[in-house]
Every structure is written in structure tokens, then in C-alpha cells.
Amino acid sequence: MTRKRLLQWQQSDLRHLCLDVRPQQEYLLDHLRTSVNIPLDHLPKRMAELPPKQQPFTLITHDHPDQDDAKQWLVGHGWQPRVVFRPRHELCFWPKAKALGCHGTGLRPATFLFRPHPLLQDHLGLLQDKLHNAEDPSDGGDVHVLDIGCGSGRDLTWLLNAHPTWQGTGIDALQGAQERFAWTTLPVRDRVQFLQIKIGATLALPRRYHLVLMMRCLIRPFLSGSLPNLVRPGGLVVLSHFVDQGDYLYPRKHLRLQPKELEQWALDFGFSLLVNRTDTTEDGRPTHSVILAKK
């Protein structure tokens, strides 16, 4: 039965999203090759690293079916573990995984269960092309990325992991953000820093950046204050936030974008509009997103 389930899993899309909540020592000895290890006791502080809640995934746990703490916790918080493997309680699980070629040992290269913001995922090629042209040999040829309101640092981690020479800075004022950021950015920890700063109209930083992200974070005094000066000539700004259309509760109306607000901001501060789109979030709230280039 275990071999049949593993074979079915290998042939399904669920093999690409696989969460292993066993202790790291057990994971290093035996794991499924596509799995990501987040031990069960880490889940409450590493929720930002989990898949989207509407996305089914595979769960590997040492829980007995009669005491299913990991699955119950995940389901209770809105996630969808569709397939559950329990190696301790399934006969010859790891030998069968080895025979099917899906067994691994040791640490894996960085792999993520989460997705970056759709704007980054859909337009990565555009960002790469534009930033390649904006590189400055006098700055070591590195690309420097600033993420305003970075939260756990998912977007920054995803970008830096894909580009080994890029450097990143995340800024957030929320309590607990630094710990979440430290966990999420572990794969790129040598190229990233976190600053816990409350952002207002003025933000003094030691450099100008090739790429500035401001995703689902709206600080109007900063938009018209320091932000334009933090972007290098030829650099990019990626902005995305909820727009005041339709009926929803959060964020409150005064914290939402107005229609055409970002286009007018770009015009006022000398940015070219490269991408301009509206989307809806998983729960149906409208967003407005742009990618802008500094002239």
C-alpha cells in the first residue's frame, strides 16, 4: 500500500509542495527529495513560509493517525494538507521511497513552499533585463534591493535566491517582524539585512537602490517624501496595494489607493510606467500594481 501511495504521489502535482514537520535530525537522515523541513514546533512562527492556503500540499509527519497534531494544527489554521505520509507508522517507508528514487538525505538547496507576489513572479524577466542595464561597475556590479514593509521577507528571499549577486535590505516596524524575517531569509542570510524602522516622510539610508519594493504597504508621506530619492537613475519601483473599489473591511478606506493614484504619482516624480495592472486577492479584494522605471 505504501509503495502504491508513493507512486501515485510521484505522478501528481502534490510532489512539488511537500512539507516535512519532523525534527531536523530525522529529516537529515531520510526525507522525500522535494520536501521542505519546518519542524512542528516552528510552525506558529514560520507560517509565512507555508504554501498559499487555497493550495493543497503533501505533509510528512511522525504523528500516529490517532494523534494527528500536525494535520489538525494546519487544517485548523486554514491550510490543506491533502496527502499525509507517516514514515514511522508505514511499513518500510524509506526503503520503498529509495526504490522509487524519491528519497534524499542531508540538507537540500533552498526550496520554497510559498509564492512571491504575483507581480514579481509574472514579470521577473522584465525586472532582470532592466536591472542588468542599471548595474553600476563602481558599486561592485551588485544589484541592491530595498523592501519597504517587508514583513517576513518572502519577496526579498525569493528574488535574492534566484540572483546570487543581489543584496537586500528589508524594513518593517511591526512587532515580531524581525524574527519572522530571520527565519524566512535563512537561505540568503549573508546577503540580506533587516532594519526595524517606523517609516514616515523621511527615511535616511546610506545608498540609493536599483529596485525598491512596496507591496501591500501604503505610506503616502514616504511616497511623496524619501522614496523618489532612494531609487537610482534607471532603477525600478514595484508598488502594489489594495484599491478603493468594492465593499470590503480591511484595510480601512483611508489606507487604500484611489483609482489612478499611482499613475499620477509616477507622472509627478518622473517615473515611466512599465507595467500597470489590477488583480484580486484570494479573498476577492481588488489591488492595483505597477512597475515603474526612474528616468
From TrEMBL:
SUPFAM superfamilies: Rhodanese/Cell cycle control phosphatase, S-adenosyl-L-methionine-dependent methyltransferases. InterPro entries: Rhodanese-like_dom, Rhodanese-like_dom_sf, SAM-dependent_MTases_sf. GO terms for molecular function: methyltransferase activity. GO terms for biological process: methylation. Residues 19-74 form the Rhodanese domain. Pfam families: Rhodanese. Keywords: Methyltransferase, Transferase. The keyword Transmembrane does not apply. The keyword Aminoacyl-tRNA synthetase does not apply. This is S-adenosyl-L-methionine-dependent methyltransferase. The lineage of its organism: Eukaryota, Fungi, Fungi incertae sedis, Mucoromycota, Mucoromycotina.
